[in-house]
Specification:
The mean pLDDT is about 95. It is built from 14 helices and 11 strands. About 45% of the residues lie in helices and about 15% in strands. The protein has helices spanning about 10-20, 25-40, 80-90, 110-125, 140-150, 165-170, 180-190, 210-220, 250-265, 275-280, 285-290, 305, 325-335, 350-359, and strands spanning about 45, 50-55, 95-100, 130-135, 155, 195, 200, 225-230, 270-275, 295, 340. The longest helix has 19 residues, at about 25-40. It has about 350 residues and is of the alpha/beta class. The chain is globular and about 55 Å long. It binds S-adenosyl-L-homocysteine (SAH). The site of S-adenosyl-L-homocysteine has 18 residues, from loops.
Length: about 350
């Protein structure tokens, strides 16, 4: 096992073995991942101020609390002014980057509005704020339009890289087409976005082989960023019926930490998120993810009046925190684990920057 912690080009069996470690062996894996991160990326943590733009969604992902089919959700879309205020707040707090996330729409009114907002944020920040988008599956033209408007990073989790499992957690129809999702990731990479993907961990029907395949998929695609977090069942979703078949919260977080650690060994220079879902399952979940190899945190900037409506999973952490409270809280939390937040910088993925220079 010690050998695996230092081996290049881990194969599927190696990855399964590493994901199966427990106790002291698991602690050694996490410690090695932290060492690799510190060697390649130092102890810096990048921030992306998260703006949850809208919970209107025409998809019906079987795990998601704001899925189109859930009529208990109060639907909202932020006004332009609200979005620009969030961006201003990001600047005041010296966050170098923001991320705009939303339920999914593909109509022209929506896609043009996003382009306009991206341009406006670039304008009011004098080009200073980095912009990540996480607005689901779109046409290549729309991705290109948003890229040209000034967005330079895009997050689209594959959710599961196994086609069979994908269709157990999504309806099997034209709106939830696994092949299309893959094509979207390829288009984003092709256009030149710093592209991020990821999966949920602890899904019903998910095996350790599936998780190993997910990590190999990230490496094959050579993505610049990965966001992985534990699955948290939401009562108003179809997958809730399997809630008692999945591993307990502690196990799901534990597996998430191992996934982060193994991926850090496989891809030392990518950006990896310590997800809010980690903190939802454990008050120190994000710190644990940072100590297992993650290097990005996404503090929430959404106006507090709308946060209760963007509950993709229940009991989301920090829903009541004001942005300025969030900043000092994060500073203290990161110092406590000998990490340092990097302010006023985009915090691009080192993997991406090096790759782009070689081209
Ligand atoms: N519509 C966008 C944004 C989705 S929300 C898109 O499809 O990309 C962002 C992420 O939250 C999703 O990609 C999913 O992985 C995660 N998520 C959704 N429901 C969840 C749940 N019940 N538990 C944990 N994570 C969840």
């Amino acid at each position: 096992m010690e050998d695996l912690l230092y081996k290049n080009n881990l194969d599927k069996d190696d990855v399964i073995q590493l994901l199966s470690l427990r106790g002291d062996d698991q602690r050694r894996l996490l410690a090695r991942a932290l060492e690799v991160k510190l060697q390649h990326l130092d102890n810096k943590v990048h921030l992306r101020g998260l703006i949850e733009y809208s919970n209107r969604c025409f998809k019906s992902c079987l795990y998601c609390g704001v899925r189109g089919g859930n009529d208990k959700v109060h639907r909202y879309t932020l006004t332009d002014e609200e979005v620009l205020d969030c961006a201003r707040q990001a600047m005041q707090l010296h966050y170098g980057s923001i991320a705009i996330q939303s339920g999914e729409r593909t109509d022209k009114a929506f896609t043009d509005k996003i382009a306009e907002l991206v341009k406006e944020i670039k304008r009011i920040s004098d080009g200073q704020l980095g912009i990540t988008l996480s607005l689901g599956e779109q046409s290549e033209n729309v991705y290109r339009q948003w890229f040209e408007a000034g967005a330079h990073r895009y997050l689209l989790r594959i959710e599961s890289s196994d086609e069979e499992l994908y269709y157990k957690i999504h309806p099997h129809d034209a709106r939830h087409d696994f092949r299309h999702r893959l094509a979207c990731i390829d288009a984003l990479l092709d256009i030149g976005y710093q592209t991020g993907t990821g999966v949920m961990i602890g899904l019903p029907f998910q095996t350790v082989e599936n998780l190993a395949d997910d990590l190999l998929f990230f490496r094959d695609k050579n993505v610049a960023m990965v966001g992985m977090g534990p699955f948290i069942p939401h009562q108003e979703t179809p997958l809730y019926q399997y809630a008692d078949t999945i591993p307990p919260a502690e196990e799901r977080l534990n597996m998430t930490l191992k996934m982060i650690a193994v991926l850090r060994l496989m891809m030392p220079e990518i950006n990896m998120v310590a997800a809010t879902a980690d903190q939802t399952l454990d008050p120190l979940g994000r710190e644990k993810a940072i100590m297992a190899g993650a290097n990005v945190i996404m503090p929430n900037l959404t106006p507090t009046s709308h946060r209760e409506d963007y509950l993709i999973y229940p009991d989301k952490a920090c829903v009541g925190d004001k942005p300025e409270e969030c900043q000092s809280c994060l500073d203290i939390r990161m110092h406590a684990i000998q990490h340092e937040i990097l302010y006023d910088e985009w915090g691009d993925s080192v993997a991406f920057t090096k790759h782009a220079q070689k081209k």
